[in-house]
Amino acid sequence: MRKQVYILILSMFATCATGQQLPIYSQYLFNKFLINPAVAGSDGYTSLNLTAREQWVGYDGAPRTFSFSAQTRIIKKGYRVKSNLFNSQVFRPKTDGRVGLGAYVFADRNGLIQRTGFQLTYAYHMWVQSNTQFSMGLALTGYQYKIDEKAINFGDPNEPWLNNELRKGMFVPDVTFGMYLLNAKYSLGLSAEQLFEASARIGGTAYQNFRIERHYYLFGSYDINSGPNSYIEPSFIVNMSEQLKPQADMGISYIYKQDLWTGLAYRTSGAVIANIGVKYQSMYIGYAFDFTLQQIQRITYGTHEITLAFKLGDNARKYRWLDRY
């Protein structure tokens, strides 16, 4: 029995390392903060975002992810009078409006592996041109990493797997770093997650240490005007682990008046993604459906992802950070 469990865990970790050690989001453009801490507060909104993703619905043990995030920007509040070399008075804001803060909690399940945790983020925004913003962000992450022992049946009550650390659950601290370039026409981001590459000893001394791989994300988008009230947005995201096995999404979206959008994307691992979204006042609702081009699609009902968001702030001045902050 012990050997069978060992083989099961090996195959499970191999699957995670090559495919999904971290959650995949089909609507990453909707909430880039989940994959890059530098995004926190970058557009000036105070945003609340709830995301639920069910992968391969109908398949037992398929990945399932829930997250709730909040982010904001510390805007300029009040002014103080300061004299310069020429004895003239200059009004300076008490805060420069360059700091973004964010946090989110998440629950992720992939097979027998469960991760439940949180992330706290600090971001700093600066100007490289009059209308282009460069941001850097650092996030502290902590989560409990465990195996669902209820999904494994042991005939031997003295089985060592019943008492190992992974079965009980381990707390894993980690760090994420990101950079983000934002303009009214385009965006470009690069981030690295799980920088500590925490390791876990499973079972007794006969078992190897399993390391959580460092992951990298590169994404970008560009807006092309297609009419007075609409534009087309090509986008891409590439994610890759230390094992150098990249996966990319390449898509295009149509946005009308910032109130309605729809799009299609192709994932190089073998999936076609359709998404649609609508805005009502300060509320945003998005839905994505992933159709897998692999054989598993025959026994599932596809992958579904729903996002609900509230963005508070003056959206008519979304990109006028200099005036507003």
List descriptors.
single chain, 325 residues, mainly beta, Porin, two-stranded antiparallel ribbon, 19 strands, 54% strand, disordered N terminus
DSSP summary, beta strand count: 19
pLDDT averaged residue by residue: 79
Tally of DSSP helical segments = 3
At the fourth level of CATH, the homologous superfamily is monomeric porin ompg
Morphology call: globular
Distance between the termini: 62 Å
Q: Major sheet: size, sense and barrel closure?
A: 14 strands, antiparallel, barrel
Give a written overview of the molecule:
It is a single chain. Mean pLDDT is 79; it is low at 1-19, 202-207 and 319-325. Helix content is 8%, strand content 54%. The strands form 3 sheets. Strands 1-2-5-6-7-8-9-12-14-15-16-17-18-19 form a 14-stranded antiparallel β-barrel. The longest helix has 19 residues, at 2-20. By secondary structure, the chain is mainly β. It has 3 helices and 19 strands. The protein has one domain (2-324): monomeric porin ompg (Porin, Beta Barrel).
Chart the SSEs and their pairings.
Blueprint: H1 2-20, E1 46-54, E2 64-74, E3 79-83, E4 89-93, E5 99-110, E6 113-129, E7 132-147, H2 165-168, E8 170-183, E9 186-193, E10 199-201, E11 209-211, E12 215-222, E13 224-227, E14 230-241, E15 247-256, E16 260-267, E17 271-280, E18 283-292, E19 303-312, H3 321-324
Antiparallel strand pairs: 1-2, 1-19, 2-5, 3-4, 5-6, 6-7, 7-8, 8-9, 9-12, 10-11, 12-14, 13-14, 14-15, 15-16, 16-17, 17-18, 18-19
